Amino acid sequence: MAEQAITLLGKLRSELQDQKLSDSDRAKLLEQLKVIGRNPSQAVPIFEKQNVQILCKYAFETSICSASREAMRCLANAMLLDEGTRQTFVDLEYPGPAAERLKNDDRDDEFLASRLIFFSTYTGKLDIPTLINKHDLADSITKNLGRAVSQLDSKPPDTNPIARMAHQETLKLIYNLVYYSPDSTTSLYPALTPLATLFLRTPLPTPALQPPITLMINALLNLNPQTSQLEDATLRDPLYPPSDPTALTTKLVSILSPSLPPVLTPQSDAILSPLLSLLRTLHSSAPDPAVRASLKSQLLPPPSARDKVLGTDSSLPSRLLRAAVDPSTSTLRDVVAALLFELSSSSATELVANIGYGYAVGILARLGVEADPATLGGAVDGVEGEVNPITGQRRDMETEPVEEVEMTEEEKEREAERLFVLFERLKATGVVDVKNPVELAREQGKFQD
């Protein structure tokens, strides 16, 4: 099959000089090459510089036609499989023509050109500012997002799969452009309006945290302006719509609630951290107090939760408390911990009142914040009677019999590990001198119990 690739590339090289074939005949040759190019062992000839150049000429130095798009598909396959091809594409100076192609109002062109530029960002040598300033890349991205918004209004709905794929490729490109060229972020700010609109209006898939929702969250997180920049209404209004400033954060919480599992795994970091990071950013920069109040009411334990020890039920606030001290994650645990602290007005005393000292001690230790034991205990806003400062439970409910909770062996081990970590942090504060019950159980040979 590698020999077949060589033969096809030879015909395509000759055709650049002879100009004898029709567009459809050229497209057929390139389509055959595209099929071969999906297999890394058979596609090796395509990766050679001279052959990459042949494909680039068909893609960008002929008219916009079927053959040029087939050539772009061949290039996209090659750049997916071979990192060297990405660098060759950049060295031959074809990212600029690819950005020019994005100006064409066509979903195939949007998908293919965005994908080629996306792969080019990984080379480390792509001149992103030139693509933006000379080839209007940011403007093309904003217009394509605007077209995606219009597709939501089309009747009947546009079911063309390439439109969905093009939209997702544009979102991936935004993330990489900002990641590899932070100075280009301001040029992409106009994309915030269609991006936020898409996020608010796109129906949620099942499960919710999958493309395109995850791609929109990543793009919003990377494009999020600084608090000082939100005086500009063109940046503020997409994130905090004047008609409903809490719209964006409310939708994020509606995604978080069914997506946060009761038991986390190391994979939870990558899946959930961007969503919670975006919530934290939107909370901290919110110009309207209603946004912060709304998040506080949705993410912190309500007064009704004080009938039990905090964090023991299946509610979203309880799952967040457990996530904030879960040793199986790192980024997610830290993001949740920081969010809970900021929801508590960045006050150690308020955090303890909101979630109990048992959870707060680990959060405060990681954040390097000291809590004065003299301020602990007593009343909590909205809760009748005194509250146990360690567990967050109402004192008058502590006499209730504890319900037996069935746990798997794995859950028991995870809970023991969590308790061990919490007690070690509690001892490290110097507030109390206690013997770690997990350690004590081990010494007494009762750990299994």
From TrEMBL:
GO terms for molecular function: G-protein alpha-subunit binding; guanyl-nucleotide exchange factor activity. One of its GO terms (cellular component) is cytoplasm. It comes from the Eukaryota. One of its GO terms (biological process) is G protein-coupled receptor signaling pathway. InterPro entries: Gua_nucleotide_exch_fac_Ric8. PANTHER family: SYNEMBRYN. This is Guanine nucleotide exchange factor synembryn.
